[in-house]
Sequence to fold (174 residues):
Amino acid sequence: MDEGSLPDPAGSTRHRALAIAGWLALVVAAVLSSALATGDGARSVDPGEAGRAQQMVQAQGSGDSIRENVLIQSRDASGDHRFVDDPELREAAGDLVAELRRTPGAVRDVGSPLVAHGERWVSQDGRSGLITFEVAGNEGQFKAHYTAAVKAVKQVQESHLRVRFAQAGDHSLS
Fold:
């Protein structure tokens, strides 16, 4: 074959403006085409296990679950305050569970180290307990329900000054 009949591999270097304009047109077309896809079918899903779990929850029709956690431990780092043996920590956990359950419809599925088989909510070193709960309701109710849950945590915290309460979860960390 004649060298002149081969495609010019350096064509894009000689026509830089045309090559750049072509790539920009491709990017604009991709962005515009994604904007045309609307509705629930266009929602993205997280990759990996989180995405599969999200799809399973949505398939069950229960919507996205917003979980929150409150770590409870002694503020006194000098002593050996084990959650299972410390009445003050256990009382704080019990008060928090009771207060969360008093928020009318705001939370559900409260988990606690105080229930049967509750050891799964106690840290490996035994110094911390975890209270877990789900913020209940639909998107329209979420803000009020989340605010009620945070208020419940703060209220219990104010009555147990020697106990550390650290809240973290799907909403509070985002």
Remarks:
- The longest helix spans residues 16-36.
- The two ends are 62 Å apart (CA to CA).
- The helical segments are 11-14, 16-36, 48-59, 87-101, 139-158.
- The mean pLDDT is 79.
